[in-house]
TrEMBL record, chains A, B:
It comes from the Archaea. SUPFAM superfamilies: Homeodomain-like, Tetracyclin repressor-like, C-terminal domain. Pfam families: TetR_C_6, TetR_N. This is TetR/AcrR family transcriptional regulator. It comes from Halovivax cerinus. Signal peptide: none annotated. Residues 2-62 form the HTH tetR-type domain. InterPro entries: BetI_C, Homeodomain-like_sf, HTH-type_TetR-like_transc_reg, HTH_TetR, Tet_transcr_reg_TetR-rel_C_sf.
């Protein structure tokens, strides 16, 4: 990615947080950068094309963050993932970004390219959860009866629902975090897990 | 509610499913009824006012459906609620309506009246879940360690997330239903529940 592309994509991020998806324009993106609208048009001939590229860029950042999650045990890695998605206010995008992303999700049924990219985000989260939970079951940290597929699906759905409720009805994110974390600690983690991993 | 009000609200429902929230107009609502646009304007002086009334109407229908859920045991009533929200294709609104409602949710941060009404929907679902789970714990059907507040929050979040994923990434609703139902059957229901309730 060259420097002006990065400048444009970072400006898109700021313009999206500031104005929302419905009000996002090339001019507003230009206003958030030191580039002219003409320069942005030189790189992307339409807002749609720029936005598709922007979603790819978000996807790269998102999977990068998923890959960076560390932890010695599966339980630690799962907790880091829930923290990243539901609790880490510093690292996590703020509510303005999530507000814009809910608009983008609502737009998905009308825009195949958006829907396709959002599906890759969804699948990246599901597979990371599934993998982590399966690792934990295999290592004896999580209960052997846990079905990694179903547990990953429930947690993905809970994470997406937490973001929707946060934006639509101002439901506190830390409350959703507590509910998801309690599910993991109470039902996935084996009662004698600390002995197993010690 | 008089007859023309009902006609208008039912036409709003159809127009919303057909065109989505962004493209909803008084003309399109009129087109779905046998009333003129002028008659609709006589009842509601703006689309915003009509839509606020429409959301109240949906709320009455929604709480009516929640109140109608029956079942001898708490476990039955909880299952009926999950079925209504996640599985009952016949009774449940179809994907067109849920697509429109995701647009409405995305609009909520920009419209206080919408956000307020959506919050009452959210609260109605949470309290019904909380009540049903607390009944089940009290009756010995559900495990005594279940926290009705946290379990109700997790299920509400999972239901909202299921609707978001269904619309945004075409995640199958029956998969979310299976994940939520497995959570209830595996973790909330006491292992010896059938003996208790028999």
């Amino acid at each position: 990615m060259d420097e002006s592309e990065r400048t444009i994509l970072d400006a898109t991020y700021r313009a999206l947080c500031e104005h929302g998806y419905a009000e996002l324009t090339m001019q507003r993106i230009a206003d958030e950068s030191d580039l002219s609208k003409a320069t942005i048009h030189y790189h992307y001939d339409s807002k749609e094309r720029l936005f598709d590229r922007f979603l790819d860029y978000l996807y790269e950042r998102y999977t990068g963050r998923l890959d960076d999650l560390s932890g010695e045990t599966a339980r630690d890695r799962l907790d880091a993932l829930l923290t990243m998605q539901l609790a880490d206010e510093a690292a996590d995008p703020g509510i303005d970004f999530q507000t814009a992303m809910l608009e983008v999700r609502a737009q998905a049924p009308y825009d195949e390219a958006i829907q396709e990219t959002l599906s890759t985000f969804d699948e990246a989260l599901v597979s990371r959860l599934r993998e982590t939970i399966a690792d934990g079951v295999e290592a004896g940290e999580f209960d052997e009866h846990v079905d990694p597929d179903l547990a990953a699906d429930l947690l993905t759905t809970a994470i997406k629902g937490a973001h929707t409720r946060r934006v639509a009805v101002r439901h506190p994110l830390d409350r959703s975090y507590e509910a998801a974390r309690t599910y993991v600690e109470t039902y996935l983690v084996r009662e004698d897990a600390s002995e197993v991993t010690a």
